Amino acid sequence: MVGVLQGWLSRSVVVQPVELLYPPDQTQDEIDKSNTAEMVSSQENATVAALTELGYEVPATLVVAGTVDGTDAAGKVQEGDVIVALDGTPVPDYQGLIELLDAVEPGATVTLTVRRHGQAVDVPIVTATKDDGGAQIGVYIDPTFDLPVDVTISIDDIGGPSAGTMFALGIVDKMTPEDEAGGKDIAGTGTIDVSGEVGPIGGIRQKLAGADRDGATWFLAPASNCDEVVGHVPEGLRVVRISTLHEAREAITAIGAGTGADLPTCTK
User: Fold this and answer.
1) What residue ranges define each of the domains in the chain, with the CATH number in brackets?
2) Which residues of the chain, if any, have pLDDT below 50?
3) Distances in Å between the alpha carbon of 227 and those of 123, 223, 266?
4) Predicted structure pTM score
């Protein structure tokens, strides 16, 4: 998609109070390391989300990194356990686990099968409720992905997770023959997780200003940032509200085809 601008393009015009950008209890080296780690994670998430959007299967080893306090999993599931099935259905990848949990009512009991010290162990868990109302098993997962395609993202002097959605769109663009954007300049921002969910970022008003400065006419904004967008959109820049990578991809295609006028935007 020709002309897609990166989600971090407005870094140079950020004017938030210095304590928000450089917490007083952290050294510059600590901040740099944290930003670098977030960027690496963002690139991995973007790669998995993009390949999944394109129809690839991305197998993953789902290693438990810990449990959520107050959930039924605490004390039952152990750090280092590898999740292999849910209610008897094999879980070969992260997306498969998410899809299985989507069909579970919060409060229902599920059987989580884990590999522990080389043995399969069935663990009954009463599910808890996520912020979005869905069911969760109450574990933190540190997945290791077996990528079916080698993807390398080359970028310097950028940190943090906010370019994730644009990374994913760039990967989709590289792996498809179409120029979905039709040569239009489209900016955007948003974190992304491996399931393709777009999340909020900081400094979106500054990013809007930077996009306008650099000649973009469209901007993809996370739905969760809309309350900060309304009333702060530069003249001549059109904002499209997105919640998932799939929505972002469809928006790019509509804009490129000249049919973007009806795309959802941020409203009060």
Assistant:
1) 11-56+149-262 (3.30.230.10), 60-145 (2.30.42.10)
2) 1-22, 28, 30-39
3) 42, 9, 8
4) 0.77
